[in-house]
Amino acid sequence: MSRLVRGGGSEKWEESESYAKKAIQLDLENPVSWYTLANCYLTRFFSHTFSTHDIRLSLSCYSRSSSLPGGSDNPDLYFNRGTLWKYLEEFERAKDDFERCEVIDQGLEGGRNAREITAWVSRVHEMVLKKGRVKEKKLKAIREGLGACEVPKGEGKTHELVGGGDELEKGGWEEEDKNYDKALALGVLMPLGDIKTPPAKYLCVDAKGGCLVLSIYHLSTDANLSDKDKVIILSPVVKEMKLGDKGYLGVQLLDPKKLVVNGRMADLRKFTPAKVMVETFGVKREEEGK
User: How many CA atoms lie within 13 Å of 136's alpha carbon, on the beta-carbon side?
Assistant: First the structure.
């Protein structure tokens, strides 16, 4: 019943979650019930809360399901969790889950997803090393422009503007507050990948000349940045994106209220949540107004 209600619309997530929890109370060792609850938390994240707390709950339930007898044979679980890991840019974990899915059920194309992740990280690794083949004259102009950037004055805490991403503590979505009092200015060089696939990703350069990738979550498809834009990320979430011997430095913007574009706070109307589809779900960026 939980799956039927959830398919009826994202506004039903509370009822869906209630049914899933009641099923678990009846049988704590049923892997399907834990898998279903994981999907409920995931739906709640994408349709309502956008809180990493729900991501943690979802991942915990997926783990519980896979640890129970019969749970490790569920290809949908690995495909769903792999898709979530990919969305979070946890590429090694995503690749592992997609490959496990492929072993169980080749029809879900987990192997293709695993290969696409490997190709993506390798491609971006090379682009970061070569700074997108952007000419030094343009890079110098961008760096000089970033030197004049200032964090907008406003209410609440202040942020110290640092020169480069290498000065910030590394963490990721699980440790969002590591750089809570810092800010990072970036010049956009070019978009990366399919604009319809979240998060929106951009090759950027910082004031010290370091090249990195900015990932913006919940950005509408008609609100893309251009190579003329300069942005400041407040309380930046910095992560080493790695897969095997390839990788790059990334900045994840999880909260649109922490984005400054060309000296002004970002227009929140240009942000919209990603859309989730379950049971074997995918995520896609949703155009504003739909």
Answer: 0
- In a 10 Å sphere around its CB, with 0-12 CB exposed, 13-18 middle and 19+ buried, how is residue 197 labelled? middle
Length in residues, the chain: 290
Q: At what angle do helices 31-44 and 52-67 cross, to 10 degrees?
A: 170
What pTM, to 2 d.p., does this model score? Answer: 0.86
Phi and psi at residue 162, in whole multiples of 5°? -100, 165
Per-residue pLDDT tens, the chain, 290 aa: give them. 333 233 344 556 677 788 889 989 999 999 999 999 999 898 888 777 778 899 999 999 999 999 999 999 999 999 999 999 999 999 999 999 999 999 999 999 999 999 999 999 999 999 999 999 999 999 999 999 998 899 987 655 689 999 999 999 998 888 878 999 999 999 999 999 877 788 999 999 999 999 999 999 888 777 789 999 999 999 999 999 999 999 999 999 988 889 999 999 888 777 776 665 554 444 443 433 33
Cα 103 from Cα 111, distance rounded (Å): 8
